[in-house]
């Protein structure tokens, strides 16, 4: 057993009771646990209106659809479903994934180009593992998905944000970030982007901007990792076709059934160029041997036996109604603030007065029986204290209205205190780190 862990911890200014502290790999320093995580245990209580987690409303999925699919799967493929599978995933599901991707404008691909994963978070991990050496640069939107940030940090990447505007990634900022990193002698390994209903902002990259970003990345020889979990969940009009529909060599496309079916099935996929696909299969086999055959066959039977397009339409209507309830409540109770107006997905991004700190305000919010996600979780560089992400996907419209009303009481109460006593800043240096995501920060 190591004998120097306490000495090492003392040198860092504290006492660590883990006897294996000195044995961990250096990269585990990126696996930090946010203090916000404890508050989400409180937020999960039924009396708390949670506007925090990006959880789909799975109750909109008729139980009989899943029951029918499961029974048929076990009757016709039970032995295969309960057995090991290949690292690439079952061919039948990969064929259906091709059909699904045509709705995003992706045509001409082969099922052989698809690798099935255990959710798209697994795909993010695999891609990062394949491409990132410590210190390599990953470019991504400002702000971006907390789960991806945690993964990138765990592989010791140099994560650099690129500013956005109403059309998505700012082209000049992206080009400047590429050139700056290379001038420093850094390798820019890929650009990670969520172009449809971005998590956390809800912003959608315009069709013209997608072409411009692709052209720039081709010219600069930068791989694009396109993460698209929400693309089919549009409200008023369909989002532009996927960036992958414009090019099949410079784009890795990530998809998932978590938002259009259920996160519990843990099935995602990657559409990759041939060489990368082979590496992905090897990475899957080395980490988990194979994705769950049971879950893959369940999704396959669901797609074959149900009207899944109609079910996606049902989800769209449900989330549109809740988006409208969220925006109306914000307009009624917090008209002094500003927020994004998403045309799909799960989230709106709210700008607070700069005098407020969303992380420090969260304990008071949970005491007032409302929860949100502080903006700091979506930045790699400590920004976001004056922003919050609100999710409208899970609560009913009435609960959303109640939650926003409670949130308004919290915000207005904080502003009254500041007006009376002034501001103070008790942020620690640890606030400049980003942490592994709590389970419901999707």
UniProtKB/TrEMBL annotation:
Cofactor(s) it depends on: pyridoxal 5'-phosphate
Annotated Aminotransferase class I/classII large domain residues: 66-406
Domain of life: Bacteria
SUPFAM superfamilies: PLP-dependent transferases
UniProtKB keywords: Aminotransferase, Pyridoxal phosphate, Transferase
Entries under InterPro entries matching the protein: Aminotransferase_I/II_large (IPR004839), Class-I_PLP-dep_aminotransf (IPR050859), PyrdxlP-dep_Trfase (IPR015424), PyrdxlP-dep_Trfase_major (IPR015421), PyrdxlP-dep_Trfase_small (IPR015422)
Gene Ontology MF: a single term: transaminase activity
Keyword Transferase: yes
Keyword hit for Calcium: no
Protein name as it appears in the record: PLP-dependent aminotransferase family protein
Organism: Gulosibacter molinativorax
